[in-house]
Amino acid sequence: MLFKYNIFILLLGLIAGVACRGLKPHQICRQLFLSRRVVTESAEFDGGVLVDENGVIESILTRDSVDALLQSGDRTIKVFDGGHLALMAGAVDSHVHVNEPGRTSWEGFVTATQAAAVGGFTTLLDMPLNSIPPTTTLENLRIKAKAAREEVFVDVGFWGGAIPNNEDEYPSMIEAGVVGFKGFLIDSGVPEFPNLKVDDLEKVFAAFNGTQTVLAFHSELNDSNIRNDCDGSAFCTEPYLYDTYLATRPAQMELDAVSLIAKYIGEYDVHVHVVHVSAEGVVPILEEARKQRIASGNKRWRGGVTAETCHHYLTLASEQIPPGHTEYKCSPPIRNQANKEKLWQYIKDHRLDLVASDHSPSVRELKGTNFLTAWGGVSSVQFGVSLFWTEAKARGYPLSTVSRYLSSGPALMTGLQNKGMLKPGYDADMIYFDPEASFVVTPEIIMYKNKISPYMYRVLQGKVIHTFLRGRLIATEGELFNGPQGELLINEDIVLNN
């Protein structure tokens, strides 16, 4: 198999160095990508994907159509045959904290997008925090976009921030191309991004009413009974135990927050998205709100009520977390095995909409062994496809589940019209994936900046072999191919030309 991969890459390398006659510099030759396992979000078949000179999918072909095309004698088409490797849409991670500028020592656009490329993610959507400044104004968006310009190895879009009293910024940021706005209902963890209070919600929903943008919430609501400090009381005597931290963020915090949001869903025509669902009880609350929305005639995708969960909630369980290993800490927290299995049942029944990484890294000094004081965030942007497939395969789910939750779902939620699917007119963002291969997560293969992971030395199933962005090879076998080829998914005339 390795010999076949090397021949495949040699062919790609030769072709990459040949300019197709008559094409402009940004164009490529027409290409035909073949596989015995072409995978979409709803099907799997033997065939191929024909890509035009601009890196856009021209057509999806069955094997009979492939044979007919090849027999036509058209020698202008370059053919890449992945054999039995699955050919799938590139994954879209709609929840990544890149942190540049301001906290670039935590993560930066170069390292984050390099990790994404080798892991099969062709589009990242950057959250409005924890960079300094946060993406809460048009000017701050310009600062962030200029930091990312010419540094990205995959395509990158941006979320805006919903904080108290910045409603006047929303129209210009929407025009600039942000995919949506994220707000917190609890302390965000950084002072420059204050959380929304209950009294702020009316103004925020009114500001977005009737627009096509997404309003996303970190849905935990604080309560006077919730303790997350350490003052020497009995509650804090064992802060290195994960159960101590888990007790500070009970599931009820999520349920209370989503119940509050649901009250506004019925009153306003706003696409509401709940990020990183940890507690399984959140989903029925949102389903009831969606049911009422659809019954009232709302035509938005999923009734404009969506939710994601994350790889760490689908892979890990609180019972497994060793004392002092704060690389497992995140907010909301990882809950027990029974909760994890309920989330997987929701995946099977299509009751969740997408899966994201919530890649939220930090420097090692902010971790330590104290769960109450350590920075909360799990780093996984590079391994999402394999993490999801490891658990999905063990449950007998098909490869189409990966495409549904890691590609089409996040693209549809964020309104990316030409991403996340193998369809004519869409960007040829694709991966060749070996679902039978396995590998071990080690520091040596990690591409993101701070090599901290709760998955360290874990065996993962499924391996991304090749990653293509608009038909161009950008990574192969864990190595990058050429320099940055990504684009910023923004209105450049507004953001970069001012």
Automatic annotation (TrEMBL):
Write out the GO MF terms.
allantoinase activity; cobalt ion binding; zinc ion binding
Signal peptide positions on this chain: 1-22
Q: Which UniProt keywords apply?
A: Hydrolase, Metal-binding, Signal, Zinc
Q: Which InterPro entries match?
A: Allantoinase, Amidohydro-rel, DHOase/Allantoinase_Hydrolase, Dihydroorotase_CS, Metal-dep_hydrolase_composite, Metal_Hydrolase
User: Which cofactors are reported in the record for this sequence?
Assistant: Zn(2+)
**Does the UniProt entry include the keyword Secreted?**
no
PANTHER family per the record?
A: ALLANTOINASE
> What family is reported?
Belongs to the metallo-dependent hydrolases superfamily. Allantoinase family.
**Name of protein:** allantoinase
